[in-house]
What does this fold into?
Amino acid sequence: MARIIVVEDEADLRDDLVEYLDRCGFEVQGASRGAELDRLLDAGPADVIVLDVNLPDEDGFSVARRVRAGSPAAIIMLTARSSLIDRVIGLELGADVYLVKPVDFREVEAQIKALMRRMQKGADSPPAADHLQAPPAAPAGAPPADLRKAWLFDDIEWRIQPPSGAAVPLTATEYKFLSLLVTAPGEAVSRQDISLALTGRDWDPYSRSIDSLVRRLRIKVEERSGCALPVQAVHGVGYAFVGPVVTSAVEDSAG
It folds into this structure.
């Protein structure tokens, strides 16, 4: 059963949403502020956090940034702030969905179920005798990739690991972005396709959210693994993964 935490300082709204999601079959707990969320997360991991932006002790953007650094939970930001800049900030800080109040509880339920389907994508896959899938075909004329020099994209644990270095955990947004690129290494994925996959909306040429995501991801991977992430911008198109890569269905790659 999926564990959901609703962080909302308005008691009536919080209680109503907790009750509704409980009737939908989720394990749900409520919190009125960031400190209460921390205590609930200390008691056990959450699958999805429904997070209000306007909290009494710490704004939701700050909470999202802090939670994202230490939790793989998906984040749905629920807020009265409807401006484009607020939506961009929320998504850039790691939110998977940004919903504007007033919101129908059925929409929250639908978004949670959609997030859970994506998060459980690999869990329903049958185990393979050899957990490594064959690497994608190399471009014409390119030498075959040496698997010992390949990056490992773990689509079960949501991690990316360099040929030599520590595995780096990915947020839901980072996972979705890299999964687009590693399916066809060396080939550019358009900003339009990236935007549709990450937000469900057409790409806005005035938005820098994709570039910000890539910049943060490069910094994160290099800081945690000591290796530069081989993701390059392709002028006028989008981004490409330019290193050899294999995907893994290993539930525990350390084992």
